Amino acid sequence: MDAGSRPALRPVESVVVPDREHGQVLVLRDTQGITDAHATLPPPLVPIVARLTGRKTCAEIAQEVSRELSSPVPTEVVVRLAAELERGLFLEGPTFEAARTRVARAFSQASLRPATHAGSAYHGEEARLRRYIDEDCLGKASSPACPDGTLVALVAPHIDPWRGAVGYGHAYGALAAAVPGEADTFVLLGTSHAPMDAPFALCRKAFDTPLGAVAADLDAIDSLAARAQFDPFADEFNHKREHSLEFQVVYLRHVLGGRPLRIVPVLAGLGAHQARRRDPARDAQVTRFLRGVRALFDSRPGRVVMVAGADLAHVGPRFGDARPLDDAQRRALERTDRVSLEHATSGDAAGFWTHVAGDLDERRVCGLAPIWSLLHTLPSGATGALLHYEQTVDGDDGSIVSHAAVGFYA
Predict the structure, then answer these.
(1) pLDDT by residue (tens digit) across 10-27?
(2) Whole-prediction pTM value?
(3) Contact between residue 150 and residue 179 where contact means Cβ atoms under 8 Å apart
(4) Disulfide: which of 39, 192, 199, 397 matches 267 by Cβ 3.0-4.6 Å?
(5) What span, in angstroms and rounded, lies between the C-alpha atoms of 383 and 281?
(6) Positive or negative CA dihedral for 140, 142, 147, 150?
(7) Torsions phi, psi for 324 (to 5 deg)
(8) Nearest-CA neighbor of 364 among 310, 314, 308, 323?
(9) What are the residue ranges spanned by the domains of the chain?
(10) CA–CA distance from 312 to each of 29, 128, 164, 330 (Å)?
(11) How far apart are CA 92 and CA 76, in angstroms?
């Protein structure tokens, strides 16, 4: 790395978090699992990182930032920061590509996807995890009136189980109460927090949990793959650290006890459709793949349940907003979220997509793709019910993640 280098930050998650020394810092985290490390950047370095696009040299970045801050920023500072980020695997380039190839090869060859977030996002020890789910999740959720019939699909949160305990309790309490006795196939639709090249990504691996591993339904997965007009395994590596499905597997394994079950793990990207605000129903590749999911329902009557791991809004300083929402703005957010959820409970996939995509840059609903995919695939006549809605507020900066539990019954 030198003054003439053109460093490019690769796609990573960036969040603003409180810091005692600096007030706030920018944290970069790898959602793909190439590295477990994260980069913490104080405010003076943020204008530099924002310019790591691959288009400007380190010398040009130093000049631009110096003008912006009205204070000289030596080129050496930019070079040193870029070199550190390169070593940390946060920049595009040969160092990152070599690491990615090595990690991706190991993941591809493994038959078991590890419980990546056990011990951090939830208890990693079986007895403590079971007690937490029973007492803090299921035990604190009320029992809302639900439509008659059996559960065919569920929208559950994918926020970490510490903060989403009650939401998970409502979702999986409803599943436990109304899941068909013969259900043994669970199609899991999750948000991919890392970029995807294809619309959907399948995974042929069993998912490990502290409660025991849950096998993948290879016949169902291969059937879906055969229908796809794109490579459904092109982004399989995104499953390595993705939490949106891992959390669902943990709760399914606990709630269903020792009964046999297999999963069909599907990450929903649809990034190009979201960027263009284009309804995916107009894309033949997307609809053909989802018809394959619907065909599973038809070929296994009463045995298939869909679960979407999907949160709603992400607003506040942590997500780039200038300030947290006040009480009036929080009530307005809830009204907007509930309109989206009304489209969902009525099975209106097109309406849900249009409503959420309309303010995607402001509300940042990360569950758009999996919820839309679930709605587009619901069996005819399924009845939706909102089981729980919640805004989880960060105690440090007031940022909000909203999420809901929604059941669909036939």
Answers:
(1) 988 888 887 778 788 899
(2) 0.87
(3) yes
(4) 192
(5) 21
(6) positive
(7) -70, 160
(8) 314
(9) 13-104, 116-409
(10) 21, 28, 12, 13
(11) 20
